[in-house]
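Service request form, structural biology core

Requester: graduate student, group of Dr. S.
Request type: structure prediction, single chain
Budget code: on file
Notes: please return the result as structure tokens.

Sequence provided:
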Amino acid sequence: MRNVNLNRWAGCLWGLLAAGVLAAAPVEPPATLLESRFLCFRLRPATGAYEIDDRQGHVVWRSNPYQPRFGEVTLEADGRLRKLSLNRCDVTRSGDRLEASFYPLTNQPTAWLRVSIRLVKDGQGLDFSYASAAALRVQGLRLLDDALWTTDADQGYVVVPVREGLLIPADSGLTFTHGFDTYAYEGCHMTMVGVVKRGAAALITWRDPYVLAEVKSSLEPAAWAEGKQALSLTLGLRKSATSFRVEFLGRGDHVTLARAYRQVAKDSGWLVTWKEKLKENRERARLFGAINYKLWSTLDRQMNEESTQEQSVRVNWTFDEAAQIAAHLKNDLKLDKVLFLMGGWIRRGYDNQHPDILPAAPECGGDAGLADCARRIRELGYVLGLHDNYQDMYRDAPSWNESYLMRTREGAIVRGGHWAGGRAYLTCSQRALELAKRPQNLPAVKQLTRADAYFIDTTYAAGLMECSDPAHPLTRWDDLKWKQAISDYARAEFGI
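Core staff response, request fulfilled:
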């Protein structure tokens, strides 16, 4: 009997101990939901991890698989930059919006960073945006943080709008991390990226030029994904960039992504159709079916780094010979539609002494020769275009003046590449427009040649820049504005 009672007491004791342990164990708060008939967004407050049930695409998109968190913030604190994970958060829901509040600094428990996730597009998309307390001094933020990943088993890929488009498959067998800055030379030439997973497509878009898209490829096997390789996406936001959008397009591919972005561009006022362009100038129809023929270049001159010593000079074609080439295309090769672009016609040859372009290269025939060449090419019915450049300035140019140039935060003038004319220095785009408008520049070229089109090189190729000269400061937004302005001006002068 005594043994039985002891066993009963032991059983009760273990039960009480187990109950105590269970009571003391932390219970993870349930995920907070934001849903529509198209998707369900689940956010876990304990870690910041989330998943998105794509009800149209029949897939689940997830947050960072390498560490459970919402993102990462870069702060200026204690005189240095610190990178801190955004994980545990307080979550509230109001209508079609969730707000996740993070407190990344343990020594400043009230310094908040708040992320808003809102249903948009009738519930087919999510807008992500953030705001923060001034005390945090945010320098950058990874909000889409190695998220929306897809694998080789998913037959997945990422689409990036580099030039004519880049499709990055998830089965390449390569490990890499590559950034695509907005409007950079080899970056995102449109403000979007796309991802396809198991035949479902998601489109990520933004408006701000201070967004960097990053694609990561990993070959490390992990329990969180089937397959041998995974691609994930990150959006890095800094300065004025505070938001982006994810649209879930249902079943689709890269064409689906392109069509969806076309609608985004239209809604943003960026889409200008050929119908609209032809209303402004019917001559633009002459580009349809025309070959793009570049005579590159009539005069080559190579200078040393300092632009003080001439290293070589070569006349490739005189202006008379250029006109003969155009006649050959027309009469012998029977090419009726041609965009005839000519480089190296300026006073010292290709990439020399910008912004001083006239008189035309004397070695090739001077102003009279260029005017005659232009007349003969245009009489063939060809579209005549000329090459120029207002981003580069050379020290030996008669107009050399550092007041036109961009400056770093430390006050130094900004160096460009070493081209044919020597070391180029970069003009501030606001001042570049002033140079192009000088009577001896575009207005004089139009009067001399009556050219139909004008190619201002490097305007968009080099990406957006900043200038710290207090007389003409530039943000990326400003640089975009002035580069569009010089394009508008050239179009107004030449028509096409």
